[in-house]
Specification:
- Among the domains are: about 150 residues, no CATH class; about 140 residues, no CATH class.
- Helices cover about 60% and strands about 5% of the residues.
- It contains 29 helices and nine strands.
- The strands form three sheets. The protein has a five-stranded mixed β-sheet with strand order 6-5-7-9-8, with helices on both faces. A two-stranded antiparallel ribbon has the order 1-4.
- The chain is globular.
- The relative contact order is 0.10.
- The C terminus is likely disordered.
Length: about 750
């Protein structure tokens, strides 16, 4: 291969790297932060993970697979090191942990060969450029939907933060300074939660020296999403043995959205990528555990005798990624268990048994048990059985409505949900038809993942609609299967790649035009089941256009003007692209979650006060605050204020409680959202607040006995009593925020 040809192969990587740097610089990230974070990612994630992955796998698709799978494995190893370093109080040495891998791989002769890539299949440009295009598109979406509307820290004026983000920021500070982890906004409450994402961010901040808010709002998410795009591309390629299917799989998850006129990502129906990719960083982190489980599961079901398999080391990799999945996202392992379970069920029905699916299922179940015992402590966190809860909002009940109308509304709403979420998976039905005689364990495994994910979402309920994460975790299984179906149809009809890519371009233009026209001439639905109309309008319009395309190209093919079978391929491409405008609509209509009321305004003074406390206190110091709600004098109190624990990186006696396991379970029991649940220890809350409004030597002593060292008064929620200065020392004051140190020599002698 000539030097010029080698250089061309690196252009997709350079394009993504350039777009990433440009996006970060344009949204206020200092250049040295970019370099330091890149250094951390390469040194502490990609390098050790890639070396270990190469030592365990037998075959490879090439450098892209080694780096992507290796980086995901590096995240798993990082969590193990984080736990050990936290238990032994050696967090300060986290930056040297890769030496535990690097030194043996440099010193042991049998391991040295893994420093150089083993000859594998080169990634074709027909894979590299589409995957790079999806990555750049996703970065552009994030720039407009999340990065631009959010300053990492308020500067020049108040910043309106989506409340989940500040909760995540508080978890990063918690993981950076404490272990075992607690809920930082309610000191003493254990964190029964999937916290690995935030431990990763904490390690990244510790090693790179980048502030946690820059990790959360910029660098950390950018790194994870680019890795996720590339990883799914190689996983789809490995599972289907088709690089095109790998590229299409990536597009179906990260570029093609749900089918609707406008965006419905923030509604109860949810979505896969729009809003969720930034609204829940644990989703993309969990995906980085899910994608390898897909590849490794299919590999083990194929057996060591199949060509190109990873070898017995894949069982070790499966165990590692299963353990990584336990705390990455709670919905990952149940979906993977369903995938293996369907293969086992098929074997039971056919009475043809092999050991692999049962070993795979047993390994996944064992990991799930570990998660339930160690991480979640058998707590439901408000999740319980309630079929079709995610569409309840559309099933409005009418008085004296005939039964047949009720049945119609039910079918209309459920049908709308399936059109909304699963239209891009139309390739699954095509694969079942084209390869009906070749449907094997790999296809059953992938089918089990998407069916299990959909079943979890449709059968369960959570106060925050968190049941939607099951279908999101399972969606990659269906995306790979659907992409496989598209490639099978192309091969069946022997359609050229030129025709296929022309069909993709034409479909994207057609969908964009349809969406704009329908938005211009009335996109809204109405109340209840009428809200499904934007979905039906878009879906049925695309399907009608697809039918017309098929008919025209079939007629042209019979006359030799178009490839035979080209109509079927073009129609399927158009249907699968029906949600192509989903992410752009979401960025335009609901940047930073739009107008929904789950935001908190953080002023520069609040953030400065919190960081002043961080800089002048010890990690073990406890804070107290008089603000617990999103807004003053709100009834009920939306207990979602996490700005102090987030920016101060300190635990608070009682800040807000809505996202605790206790609040989730109380909300589920009462049938309300967490924001409507009161604090379970009203006496504690009363005494905390009275220390600000009616301070005395006794109330300050009570705070001291509970470990409180700093009091932060948010005067927007009520000015502290004038005599508080008699019992605590005023150390900081900006605008509506004052910080008092408790336990200093004062006139009241409370020390």
């Amino acid at each position: 291969m000539t030097l010029a040809a080698r250089a061309v192969r690196w252009l997709p990587l350079l394009a993504v790297s350039g777009a990433l740097c440009a996006m970060l610089l344009a949204t206020g990230v200092p250049f040295d932060y970019i370099l330091r974070y890149a250094g951390y990612a390469l040194w502490a994630v990609t390098l050790p993970g890639t070396l270990v992955y190469r030592a365990l796998r037998r075959n490879t698709l090439g450098l892209a697979e080694d780096l992507a799978m290796g980086s995901a494995l590096g995240l798993v190893l990082e969590i193990a090191v984080f736990v050990v370093a936290s238990v032994t109080d050696l967090r300060g040495l986290l930056w040297v942990w890769p030496l535990l891998v690097v030194v043996p791989f440099a010193a042991v002769p049998r391991l040295r060969r893994h420093w150089l890539p083993r000859q594998g299949e080169r990634a074709p440009l027909t894979w590299s450029w589409p995957v790079a295009g999806v990555a750049v598109f996703l970065l552009a979406y994030l720039t407009f939907a999340f990065f631009r509307p959010n300053q990492p820290i308020p500067v020049g004026g108040p910043q309106r933060y989506f409340i989940d983000e500040l909760f995540y920021l508080s978890l990063i500070g918690e993981a950076k300074h404490h272990f075992p982890l607690e809920v930082p906004a309610v000191a003493g409450q254990s964190l029964d939660y999937h916290w690995f994402t935030f431990a990763h961010y904490a390690v990244a901040s510790t090693i790179s020296g980048v502030e946690p808010h820059f990790v959360l709002f910029r660098l950390g998410l950018a790194f994870l999403v680019v890795l996720g795009v590339v990883l799914l591309g190689v996983v789809g390629w490995r599972v289907t043995s088709s690089s095109l299917a790998g590229a299409v799989s990536t597009a179906l998850v990260f570029a093609i959205g749900e089918v609707a006129v406008g965006s419905m990502a923030l509604g109860p129906l949810g979505g896969v990528t729009a809003y969720m990719i930034w609204g829940s960083p644990s989703l993309i982190y969990g995906a980085l555990m899910t994608f390898p489980l897909i590849a490794l599961g299919v590999d083990r079901l194929a057996g060591d005798g199949a060509p190109g398999t990873l070898g017995r080391g894949a069982w070790v990799l499966l165990a590692l990624f299963s353990l990584g999945a336990t705390g990455a996202k709670a919905s990952v392992l149940p979906v993977a268990v369903c995938a293996a379970g369907l293969v086992c069920l098929v074997q039971l029905v056919r009475r043809r048994f092999s050991a692999a699916p049962w070993l795979l299922g047993g390994l996944l179940i064992a990991a799930q048990v570990v998660a339930m015992v160690v991480l979640y402590r058998f707590k439901s966190n408000g999740l319980y059985i309630h079929p079709l809860a995610n569409v309840d909002a559309f099933l409005t009940r009418a008085i004296n409505r005939p039964w047949w109308k009720e049945l119609f509304v039910f079918a209309f709403v459920v049908g709308g949900y399936f059109l909304f979420m699963f239209t891009r998976l139309a390739g699954i039905a095509v694969l079942a038809w084209v390869r009906r005689r070749e449907w094997g364990t790999a296809q059953w495994f992938l089918s089990g993942g998407i069916v299990g994910g959909a079943a979890g979402t449709l059968l369960l309920w959570h106060p925050s609609y968190a049941q939607g994460y099951f279908v999101r975790s399972g969606f990659a299984f269906g995306a790979v299967l659907s992409a496989w179906g598209l490639v099978a149809l192309i091969e069946h009809h022997r359609v050229s790649m030129r025709f296929f890519w022309a069909s993709v371009a034409a479909s994207l233009v057609a969908v964009a035009c349809l969406s704009l026209l329908m938005w211009r001439y009335g996109a809204t639905g109405g109340f209840g089941w009428h809200d499904m109309l934007p979905i039906y309008r878009m879906a049925l319009s695309v399907m009608a256009l697809a039918a017309l395309v098929w008919l025209v190209l079939w007629w042209a093919g019979r006359r030799g003007w178009a490839p035979r079978g080209g109509g079927a391929v073009a129609a399927l491409v158009l249907v699968m692209c029906a949600g192509a405008t989903g992410l752009p609509w979401d960025a335009k209509l609901f940047a930073n979650a739009g107008p929904i009321p789950y935001h908190v305004e953080v002023t520069p003074e609040r953030a400065e006060a919190a960081q002043w406390v961080r800089d002048h206190s010890e990690p073990g110091d406890l804070l107290a605050i008089n603000a617990h709600c999103l807004k003053p004098n709100s009834d009920p109190c939306s207990s979602l204020s996490f700005w102090l624990s987030g920016f101060a990186e300190r635990r608070v006696l009682v800040e807000s409680w809505a996202y605790t396991a206790q609040a989730n379970e109380d909300a589920a029991r009462q049938g309300v959202t967490q924001t409507q649940v009161g604090f379970w220890d009203q006496e504690l809350l009363r005494r905390n607040d009275s220390a600000f409004s009616q301070p005395s030597a006794e109330s300050i002593r009570w705070l001291r006995e509970r470990g409180v060292r700093w009091m932060v008064a948010d005067r927007a929620f009520g000015r502290e009593a004038a005599n508080l200065k008699e019992f605590a020392l005023l150390r900081f004051e900006r605008g509506d925020v004052a910080v008092y140190e408790v336990g200093c020599p004062t006139a009241g002698g409370a020390c």
